[in-house]
Design goal:
It is built from 3 helices and 6 strands. The strands form 2 sheets. The protein has a 3-stranded antiparallel β-sheet. Helix 1 packs across helix 2 and helix 2 packs parallel to helix 3. The chain is elongated, with a radius of gyration of 18 Å.
């Protein structure tokens, strides 16, 4: 101790630096990869690392989901740009990244095959958007 744990967090803007116009005091924001230390009760984060949180998403959900969503975004847009008619295989389709990835790929028009590790996870994968689900157990 002291240590700087954490990579992603959500909170409320308490002050803005000179030239910052996209955020104001009181805005709710989430970030990741702004340097280790997200467990701190207050910290300085560059405005270009922040994303506004919609009012209907609680801070804890935004912080928990943001990194997972960015991982899904990387996979469906950067690793390979998923398009209508593609077949997408999603491992761990009932998990956090898997559910976001399955739903996103489905929204882009892909046929989504989800892989799950137990019968109990089958329904979650289907609800997330998988057209077909394989239980590898």
């Amino acid at each position: 101790m002291p240590t700087g744990l954490g990579h992603e967090a959500a909170g409320v803007v308490e002050a803005v630096g000179e030239g910052v116009t996209e955020f104001k005091v009181g805005d709710r924001v989430v970030y990741m990869n702004a340097g280790i230390g997200a467990y701190a009760s207050a910290r300085n984060v560059a405005a270009d690392k922040l994303v506004a949180i919609p009012d209907n998403i609680p801070d804890d959900v935004a912080a928990a989901v943001f990194f997972k969503a960015m991982t899904a975004q990387y996979l469906v847009q950067k690793t390979y740009q998923v398009k209508a008619g593609d077949v997408v295989l999603v491992h761990a389709a009932a998990g956090g990244v898997g559910q976001i990835l399955a739903g996103w790929a489905k929204a882009l028009g892909a046929f989504v095959v989800g892989i799950v590790g137990s019968p109990a996870k089958f329904a979650a994968a289907k609800e997330a958007g998988c057209d077909a689900v394989v239980d590898y157990s």
